[in-house]
Amino acid sequence: MQEYITITNARQNNLKSVSLKIPKRKITIFTGVSGSGKSSIVFDTIAQEAGRQLNENFSAFARTYLPKYSQPDVDSIENLSMAVVVDQSRIGGNSRSTLGTITDINPLIRLLFSRLGQPSIGAAWNFSFNDPHGMCPTCEGIGRIVALDLDKAIDRNKSLNEEAILLPGHKIGSWQLKYYTNSGFFDNDKPIKDYTEEELHKLLYASGEKIDSLFIEGMNSTYDGIVVRFNRSNIKGGTESSAATQKKIAPFISEQKCYECHGTRFNQQVLACKVAGYSIADMLSIQIDELVQVIKEIKDASVAPIVANITQRLSDLVEIGLDYVSLDRETSTLSGGESQRVKMVKHLSSSLIDVIYIFDEPSIGLHPRDVHRLNELLAKLRDKGNTVVVVEHDPDVIKIADYIIDVGPKAGKNGGNITYEGSFQGLLSSDTLTGKAFGKKISFKETPREPKEFIETSKSTLHNLKNVSLKVPKGLFTVVTGVAGSGKSSLVNGVFAKEFPDAIMIDQSAVGANSRSNPATYTGILNDIRKMFAQENQVSAGLFTYNSEGGCETCKGHGVIKMELSFMDSVEILCQACGGKRFKDEVYQYKLKGKSIDQVLNMTILEAVEYFDEKSIKRKLQQILDVGLGYMTLGQPLNTLSGGECQRLKLAKELNKKGNIYIMDEPTTGLHISDITSVLNIIEHLVQKGNTVIVIEHNTDVMRSADWLIDVGVDGGIRGGEVLYEGKPSGLLACERSITAKYI
User: How far, in Å, CA of 352 to CA of 385, rounded?
Assistant: First the structure.
């Protein structure tokens, strides 16, 4: 008999007393426009309550160390299981955290080397770069060191007498310079570039050589090279350098690959130990799809279970589309989409069943070619006996749902209702924005703009790039495409953005870090609104901000009171004095055109455009309206916005600027298929104003709408890094090597 998760009267955020049943052990996909209430149901109600109830099984003391979950605004939720949320947040981690450590593949490879490695060096921990037995002693297992940058410290065209040493304190006549000129080792008038290898080593790296004292006759002294002395004084010294000293030496130091282990992180004894001709550093640096083949070739029966386990985990990474990365890739360098896929793979090897897996747009960062891999993974999780709940906009993922719930009909105050429940076929014929948008395809732009002038970077070999440059037409809309890991981001964000630092990055990072920021403060119109209230009522403008004298004295303008309950979770309670409105009572008597300040802040952007007559305010509000955020209220805290909403709010600020270069990384992320046209209209508006727009994108509608298209490939990782095509989007169809050409 089919079981259901039953939700009764959910009122979280914009939800309008929503009641629904979600089938257990099936794939249920939530659809609907951005801001319609999908996340309010899935994350703020289901995941929140599952997490809260799970935490209640622990002692009050243990709960202080667990994530905090508040009780959602809902009458009841029945038949809940443990929920695992796999979101888009980056894994992060420090420089010791790699793909191999986070997926627990590294411990298995260490075990393999401890059993088969020759010459044998013993236990598995000897093969860890995070253990003193295995780490490189110079960089302590990091692979990088902070060191003196010789190109900045030495002018090789000059001699010692011409002040070739550029470090602070080495001027003519200084004792630091005399330390070298009076040593007797060097021709002080000879340019450094003409030194023999032996002389250069003596100048830079000599250590602990006994010589006659340079300053006191009859005494001995110790001679050290420039690098050795600098490191001892400034990098490996026992005392902290003063702030003034650090500022002086900062221009002369840089982070470099460790000279002893060459970035591998391991000591020489570990690097000498081999399995099948590979050191452990070699294996960790091989691209995953190739490493699978290397591991499969190990036929020794004594390690068969280890080999099978490693092979399975590596194959899972390949199947989810991470075949192009290597196990030594630092987790902090993984994108949001890559991080999410790594988290998914970790759950594939779990033996837990009857878990609710919640995914937030798992197709982000996936090329159309790779979506089927994601679908197969979702099906695997379901077939193990789990409930899979997905928030998704990609039609190719929505198609595989067992059950679809569409939330709408629109966003914000105009959303919060269930507009459809049922199968995919039923959705197609439903009278919903999602149903109507399916099957609509944007054609190639009929008359793409002609390039007249190009902006070009220098050639680069960053990451997997194969000595290529990015050549972008000025004043046009350019889309950069290619499969995940092909080198798009390296070329645009890693090379172009650094060579053209004036380019403006419009990404999906948060625009406001706290609950006191809102669209009115972000656009700057709140100052104008406060002044208008003050002039109308002949009072101080400070009364109309909850961050100042107008704030409720009980909750200090927060709208809630936080109660710390010793070893129990802290609880946020609605402020009884202001009812959550944040202002003190006195403020509500002052009106502007019949409305108090809290009523104005509760208006949607759409309502506010009609309410205000002032041109400067209307113009800024219209820009937010133009980016499709008319459903937001003026007072909505910015820390409640999704990544896509943050990106569009940043775009709104740029709409009237001219002559800039804009870089956008997947601007359709988090966008409903019916909203893609509005983003394309914004980009067109920017280009018409004389701006250059560069977009990294997997969405084929966006590709077809561009003036110019650059395809990077052929595939991911070492098989990528080439520019396969540059030209009008329709011309890509003839590019036989391009994978994107098959989907555009």
Answer: 9
What number of CA atoms fall less than 13 Å from residue 132's CA on the CB side? 0
Which residues 6+ apart lie within 8 Å of 720 measured at CB?
Answer: 324, 464, 482, 483, 485, 486, 487, 712, 713, 714
Q: How far apart are CA 256 and CA 147, in angstroms?
A: 7
pLDDT digits (tens, 9 = 90+) for 315-329: 999 988 899 999 999
Neighbour count for residue 418 (Cβ, 10 Å): 18
**Euclidean distance between CA atoms 122 and 114, whole angstroms:** 6
Q: What are the backbone angles phi and psi of residue 674, rounded to the nearest 5°?
A: -80, -15
Q: What is the greatest pairwise CA distance in the chain?
A: 100
Tokens for 391?
Answer: 């928030």
**Beta strand 560-565 pairing with 568-574:** antiparallel
Strand partners, 478: 694, 708
Distance (Å, rounded) from C-alpha 140 to C-alpha 149? 20
416 close to 40: Cβ distance less than 8 angstroms: yes
**DSSP per residue, 585-622:** GGGGG--BTTB-HHHHHTSBHHHHHHH---HHHHHHHH
How far is the C-alpha of 267 from the C-alpha of 502, rounded, in Å? Answer: 42
pTM of the model: 0.81
Residue entry with tokens 């799809």: 289
Question: For residue 113, which amino acid is it?
Answer: F
CA distance 309 to 286: 18
The CA distance from 662 to 651, in Å, is 10
Contact residues for 377 (Cβ-Cβ < 8 A; gap 6+)? 319, 320, 344, 348
pLDDT of residue 667: 87
Q: How far apart are CA 574 and CA 562, in angstroms?
A: 9
- The predicted-structure confidence for 214-245, as pLDDT tens digits, reads as follows 666 667 788 999 988 888 888 765 445 567 77
Cβ–Cβ < 8 Å for 743, 700:
yes
Burial of 102 (0-12, 13-18, 19+ CB in 10 A): buried
